[in-house]
Structures are given as C-alpha cells and as structure tokens.
Amino acid sequence: MMNREQILNMMEGYGADLQSWPISNQQAVSEYIAADKELSLALSMLAADELTFKECFISSEPLWSLAAEKSLSEKITSSVASAQIVKKSSPWWQTIIQRFTDPAQVLQAFPAVVAMLLLMVVVQVAYKDETAHVDIAYSTEELRDWLVFEGMNDIAEIEQDTELLIERVNNDLGELPEFVYYL
Amino acid sequence: MNELSLLSDKQLIEQVSNNEQAAFAELVQRYLASLVKFSTRYTLSFSCSEDIVQEAFLRVWRHASGWSDSKGSVKSWLYKIVYNATIDFLRKKKRDAFMPTHEHDIACENSPDKMLLGRQQQRWFHQALSELPERQRTALCLFMNNGLSVAEVATVLDLSLEATSSLLARAKRKLRNKRQQDSQLGVC
Asked: What's the CA gap between A34 and A15, in Å, rounded?
C-alpha cells in the first residue's frame, strides 16, 4: 500500500495525468487522492504547473516551415526509393532464432521432426537386433588372450578350448585355418 | 483519409521491414517535423538537424527488421536514434547541447496569436531550462513537449523507469523552486 509521501513523489515523476502512471498504481492512487483533499489540491497545482511549462515549450518550439518539411520528406522517401539504399539483411543467427521461435514455422516442421524421431527409433531397434549377428574376426592369438582374460589360465585348457572352438567354427562355416569369425 | 494513416506505428514499422515504401513515407510524415524541431533545440540549426533526421530515417529504413517490442515503442526508438545522432553531432562540433532557442537566429512559434505567455515569462523559462542538467532538460522536453510517456523517455535516455521518473521529478521541482525564488525577487 502506498503512502502519502510516495504518492507525492510519484506525482512529480509521472505527472498530473493519472493515465500516464503505471497501470498497477492508477486505481489505488486515484482512490487515495479522491479521499485526501490536500493531495487533490497538490495534483491540481501540479497540473497547472505542467500546463504552464508545456505552453513555454510550445511557444519556444523552433518554427519550421511546411515547405521545408515537404521538401525533406520527399528527399528522404526518394532516397529510399533509389537503388543505392540497400536494406541490410538481418544476421544469419538472428534468422535462425526467428525461425525457431516462430510458432508457425515450428508447427510446420513438427510432422517432419516426429517422422525423423520415429525413424531414429526404428533404426536403433534394428541396429540392436543386428549386433547379435555381427561378424567379428579374431586371430587365434587374440582368442587365446581372450580366454586368459576370461580366467582360463591353464595353457593346456586354452589350447584345448581354442582347438575345440576352431574345429566347431570350421565345421559350421567351412575352411578357416587362421581366423575365427564367431565367438 | 489514407489507409496507412490508420495503422499503428508498430504496424507501419512491420511493413517498412518488408520494404513497403508507402509505409515508410507515412512514418516519415508522422514524425519528421517533431524530430527536426527536437533536434534543432540542440543544434540551433535547421539544416544540421535536417541532415541528422534524414540520416536517422535512412537508418530506420535499413534496420526496420531489427526493431522489436523490447526496444520500446517505435516513437521512442525514433527519438532515441535522433537524440543519439544529435549528441554525436554536438560532440564533433564541441558545442554545448540544448541552448534556449529564442536567443538565437531560429524563429520560434511565438507569433502573437500563439503566444500564451508574456515575453518576460518566456525568457525566464529559457533561462531556468538552460540551468538544468542536460539529461533533465531532455527528459522534460520529451515528456512535456513531445508527448512521450515516462517509459518512452526512459527508452530514449537508456534509463530505468524509476530513474526517469525521479529525473523528471527533480527537473520539475527545480523549475518550480526557481520560479518561486524569482517571483519573490520580481524577476518573473
């Protein structure tokens, strides 16, 4: 709630015309002034002062002839019409921001964005299935390393397992003397 | 009545940004005289102010697409461009800004039928105005003479709403105090 002092200060700043005050204050201030005779008097004195100042400003305004006004107006509009005045296009980043913040353009692009997202989901699902069958080539040396890594430290065991694996693969896929294609 | 004259400043500037020359001409017609008169209060020369305002309007034409609500009203945007250009001009000329006009060669709108105040009071007003700091004078002139709102004055001067309101309050208080003092001395 505003007090008397604040209203007096605002009166000076915003002027005697309450319409030019911030909208949020207008109602409260007009009610306050209506109930306070001194404030009401201060407001009317301020209005009189402002009128005097305005008249002073008007009477001291430089007198510019209508002919000069017309001539300059024509000069400005004709210079714009000439090809020499090229409009500066807005920078690229401003265009992008405008495009992404324009609801009409965003709505227009919406189906394409949804379709793209769906396509990405489909591709991802298909890729997941594909990874199970992907062919990876391992040399026997690499296979041995892998078996050691898996905890089969015994050389004989490794040899046996590797041989077994190679044999299996050979049986399934044909001749693969050096490389193993499936783990 | 011209159709364009019914459009708001915002609608006009939107059309100007789409290269509509008729809209631009309407905008020029709407603000040319007041901008030249505003600038002349500082430059004291119509020809200098005409150049300043012409350049300002060409800038508006080139950069109309850069205007948005965040820059304030179109009116305050125009005044800001002209004010800054005028101050730049004065800096280059190294001349003091805003001298009372009637002391110089420029004819003022003080013809007998328009004159609402006595010559003595006018002289007093010019003197009082010239004693105000530049920002206070400009704020007062824009608010009282050019009909800009406090928010629009704030945009022109690059100040907050509160700072502008207090600037205007100080300016009015100073003018009133000076009038009180001078009337006691019998000056005004």
From this structure: 17
User: Taking the alpha carbons of A4, A9, A15, A18 in that order, is the dihedral positive or negative?
Assistant: negative
Query: Percentage of chain B surpassing pLDDT 70?
Result: 85
Nearest to A134 by CA among A178, A177, A182, A179: A182
- pLDDT of B27 over the 70 cut: yes
At A119 the three-state DSSP class reads helix
List CB contacts of A106: < 8 A, sequence separation 6 or more. A100
Q: Hey, is the C-beta of B32 within 8 angstroms of any chain A C-beta?
A: yes
B81: Cβ contacts below 8 Å, ≥ 6 apart: B56, B59, B60
In the block, tokens 């714009």 appear at A80
Q: Do A56 and B117 touch (CB under 8 A)?
A: yes
In whole angstroms, how large is the CA radius of gyration of chain A?
A: 43
**CB of B48 less than 8 A from some CB of A:** no
Q: Which positions in chain B touch A9 (Cβ < 8 Å)?
A: 166, 169
HSE-CB for A70 with a 13 A CA cutoff: 3
pLDDT at A174 over 60: no
Q: Which of B24, B108, B143 is opposite residue A59, by nearest beta carbon?
A: B108
